[in-house]
Amino acid sequence: MAAIAVQLENVSRLFGRFPALRQVSAVFSTGQCYVLLGENGAGKSTLLRVLAGLLQPTLGVVRYFPQPAAAADPGRDKGGSGGSEDDRLRAARARIGYMSHSPMIYDELSAAENLRYFASLYRGRPVWTPEEALNTVGLDPALPRPVGQYSQGMRQRVSLARVLLSQPELILLDEPFSNLDARSAGQMLLLLGRLRGEGRCIVLTTHQRDLAAPLADQILTMEAGRLTSAAPGPASAPATELESALSPASPQTIQPELAPGASPA
Fold first, then answer.
1. Are 21 and 12 in contact (CB under 8 A)?
2. pTM of the model
């Protein structure tokens, strides 16, 4: 049985009087990929920022990597582990990688120079070397030119390499296929498929349902801050079939059935 990476219980987030999230409850497990769909303003990016610990819920509870009840500390409180709220959130963030719309890399530096800088920020924590992270995303660490001269697909992969430096267990990606051509999008899909196969939990937002669907264990839809539907993806497909579905040369559209109790997207 997959372990829980993060659990939301009736989470709402208000900006002033505007409810960006409304009573969202969900469980995200390791070794699974969750594709989050919805129109602009539906609350997808806000949900990712709450999952990343960058926004605190106005109401409700976020539990990161909760232990089974039998192993729980009797003194633990609502956050899912012992210690203060700040300690719990700090410990959780160390296990989370977040990629926003912005690539958050320096255009004037090479990919290796970017990652060397970001790796230096993880003081006292084991991280991949820039070479390991760039090799993982299929980029040459020796490439000397600045990332400002990279294609959009290459820049996205450098950004993902930055996220992977700390070897996160929970990977949160906001529109990772944005502005990618078909070849670059296919490469990104294959890479995310490998990360999923390593047991990481991936939650990503996209407007490109047909592109991301073969990777999904669950396809979730948001409307007006609410999680309105959930449908299973091809998680039960044999590995060879999944690899074929993720191949850029073999595009496949998945039409999953709705999970019990979910409404049509």
1. yes
2. 0.82
